[in-house]
Amino acid sequence: MARNAPEGTGPMHVPFGHIVANTKWRGSKLLQGMQGKIKIVFEDGLTPVDFYVSSRSCILYVTEADLVAGNGYRKRLVQVRNSSNLQAIVIVEKTQMSEQYFSAIQKFTVLDLGMVLLPVTSQMEASCLIIQLVQEQTKEPSKNPFLSKKRTLMPELSLLRTVQQIPGVGKVKAPLLLQKFPSIQQLSNASIRELEPVVGQAVAQHIHAFFTQPR
């Protein structure tokens, strides 16, 4: 197997249908949830990356403990964001304990860095999500509903999930918003008047406040 670049942010050769995992996750609940469903290859020196799902697609995992501990996770995200070689997804544990810190990482990841973010409530939920990502990556483009116009599953799925996390939006209103405002940039620049016809006045105010409050 080809190793990654010395900085840990270069392309990685990932065998078809496999996931390459940082050895620090060996024995974790996250990996236990994947065993028997996808093939796992462990690799040393992946930092700051936690997993590779394809040669140029990687996952950074932010745990509940990482969020509670402060902003230490930001250095990892910036390091991968600055690599032009990788498409990264950030998976974040949003639990009762870490929920108060979630808005900060969501805004930093999506708005400041332009990266994709998916919240999970547990490592077992994350396992299911990662399995789905790996399985979709292995599909032929013509058979993968998420691969259209050269856009991969991860931005499509993460954008929807990110919009769902905005206060007052949820699973029903998120697709409606994305039909009208197909990117985070367009949504963040929308006025309350532009948002109201789609989601109503109250939710429009929530969305506008989410994007305009100081980070």
Automatic annotation (TrEMBL):
Gene3D superfamilies: 3.40.50.10130, 5' to 3' exonuclease, C-terminal subdomain. The keyword DNA-binding applies. Its main location: nucleus. The keyword DNA repair applies. Residues 166-214 form the DisA/LigA helix-hairpin-helix motif domain. CDD domains: XPF_nuclease_FAAP24. Residues 12-135 form the Fanconi anemia core complex-associated protein 24 pseudonuclease domain. InterPro entries: DisA/LigA_HHH, FAAP24, PND, RuvA_2-like. It holds the Pfam family PND. GO terms for biological process: interstrand cross-link repair. Keywords: DNA damage, DNA repair, DNA-binding, Nucleus. It is found in: Nucleus. Coiled coil: none annotated. GO terms for cellular component: chromatin; FANCM-MHF complex; Fanconi anaemia nuclear complex; nucleoplasm. One of its GO terms (molecular function) is chromatin binding. Plays a role in DNA repair through recruitment of the FA core complex to damaged DNA. Regulates FANCD2 monoubiquitination upon DNA damage. Induces chromosomal instability as well as hypersensitivity to DNA cross-linking agents, when repressed. Targets FANCM/FAAP24 complex to the DNA, preferentially to single strand DNA. Belongs to the multisubunit FA complex composed of FANCA, FANCB, FANCC, FANCE, FANCF, FANCG, FANCL/PHF9, FANCM and FAAP24. Interacts with FANCM. This is Fanconi anemia core complex-associated protein 24. It comes from Panthera pardus (Leopard). The lineage of its organism: Eukaryota, Metazoa, Chordata, Craniata, Vertebrata. The gene is FAAP24.
